[in-house]
Amino acid sequence: MAQAAGLMALVLAATASTASAESAGSNDAATSLDVIVKGKITASCRLSGGGDINFGELTGGQQVEADFGLACNVPFDISFQSQSGGLAHVDKPRGEGQFSGRLGYTLNVAIPTISPQAATLGGTFASENLIAKKTLSSGEGIAKGGGRIQILTGRPEGAGLLAGEYSEVLSVTLAPRV
């Protein structure tokens, strides 16, 4: 605001000087003044959130949702990658005997964007396909302020799941496109 007030004072002073010179009859006075105003906004992308999601007793068919922060003032790509391809038994991810050591899930992603109209960037991925990184592109859109992931566990196969602890690491990577 102070810069705008200073700029207005400069323009008013230049106009007053020009008017005084013209009324004095001087032909040497400038009759116009160009003022060049510049600025810059640096490209910025930030991702926040994360943490632990605990399903408790894994029965299959469970659903959780988690919001994450996304601030990006340029178009972006966002990638998702699974470490295990599902919730995997900590000690025996391949299972044992007739009992499975992995529970698959479906990941749904929704990210509001603007460009210039509001839209939603979205994708649905099976956990076993997320071992190979999957990327969503915002096109020409920029982030509107965050996103939401939804995880829906599948049903255990065969005789069910092997008793024990299960875990998964889902990596989310943000890349600005400048």
Structure write-up:
With 178 residues, this protein is mostly beta strands. Strands 1, 2, 6, 7, 9 and 10 form a 6-stranded antiparallel β-sheet that branches. A 3-stranded antiparallel β-sheet has the order 8-3-12, with no helix packed on it. A 3-stranded antiparallel β-sheet has the order 5-4-11, with no helix packed on it. Strand 6 and strand 7 form a beta hairpin. The longest helix is centred in the N-terminal third of the chain and has 22 residues. It starts with a helix and ends with a strand. The N terminus is likely disordered.
Range of helix content: 10-25%
Query: Which parts are unreliable, with pLDDT below 50 for 5 consecutive residues or more?
Result: 1-23
**Separation of termini?**
29 Å
Q: Which descriptor suits the 3D outline?
A: rod-shaped
Largest sheet: 6 strands, antiparallel
